[in-house]
Amino acid sequence: MSASRPAYPTLEEVIGRTPLVRLQRVPGEANAARGNVILGKLEGNNPAGSVKDRPAISMIKRAEERGEIKPGDTLIEATSGNTGIALAMAAAIRGYRMLLVMPEDLSIERAQTMKAFGAELILTPRSGGMEYARDLAEQMQKDGKGRVLDQFANGDNPRVHEETTGPEIWQDTAGQVTHFVSAMGTTGTITGVSHHLKAQNPAVRIVGAQPSEGSRIPGIRKWPEAYLPKIHDPKAVDELVYVSQADAETMARRLAAEEGLFCGISAAGACWVALQIAQRVENATIVFIVCDRGDRYLSTGVFPA
């Protein structure tokens, strides 16, 4: 009698459960002497390469469960990159037409990846930024061209991080995490993770990485008041630390060359913030989100040619 066939997972079933890795060289000897541990959560290990895989599949599946969409429908989303790639993958998995609205200055790698998944791109003027892209997506929905999932206002975004990312960090640090650092874009990651970690231990410090004045860091945004994501919960974040574009880009190069950790610029910005925290604490376990991989930034010139 033949052995039973293993229960192989589908692609969407392997989203999440990403590893935590300890930084070895970048923190330096002085930090080690203070007893601090800095851990990066490798969200680039997700199938489409970023932390956005989690909310992308969550928003589509839960909209299906509520009867709001069905396979074959057209979905619309304004995005600066990673959410678009993740939604393009999720739409391909579950059978949707995906229209992605984004500023024209996104990296070549991102655009090509979205198209590879079958998504259609609608590019908006660079001068309008993400604010214009969001407005256009909403207008397209009003015109009956599809349904906007709206990562900025959709509760299924932070919900999936509260249900998965936060518990993974708590479990993998054996409840010893003292600080959590994340770049802030839609704020879904930091809000959801905060809700879980604070429920386990209110003393855990939640720190958001924000761009300093004049800095353009993909994945880190400081929104005008009128465009502040509706899912943002100010009470979920204990502290904001501002990082410059130059410091984030330098850290991205250091992480690749000194740690073998090839990550994106916003992830490097979060790491820079984690290191600032480490300079003023002792015996801390600091976790930062490595939200994507560096290969989708090669054309930007951040890394050596």
From TrEMBL:
Enzyme class: transferase
Residues bearing the modification N6-(pyridoxal phosphate)lysine: 52
Cofactor: pyridoxal 5'-phosphate
Keywords: Amino-acid biosynthesis, Cysteine biosynthesis, Pyridoxal phosphate, Transferase
MF terms in GO: cysteine synthase activity
Gene Ontology BP term (one): cysteine biosynthetic process from serine
Keyword Amino-acid biosynthesis tagged: yes
Reactions catalysed according to its record: O-acetyl-L-serine + hydrogen sulfide = L-cysteine + acetate
Residues that bind pyridoxal 5'-phosphate: 82, 185-189, 266
Pathway membership: Amino-acid biosynthesis; L-cysteine biosynthesis; L-cysteine from L-serine: step 2/2
Key word Transferase present: yes
Tree of life domain: Bacteria
Domain named Tryptophan synthase beta chain-like PALP: residues: 13-292
Entry EC no(s): 2.5.1.47
Entries under CDD domains matching the protein: CBS_like (cd01561)
PANTHER family: CYSTATHIONINE BETA-SYNTHASE
Family label: Belongs to the cysteine synthase/cystathionine beta-synthase family.
Name assigned to this protein: Cysteine synthase
Species: Rubrivivax albus
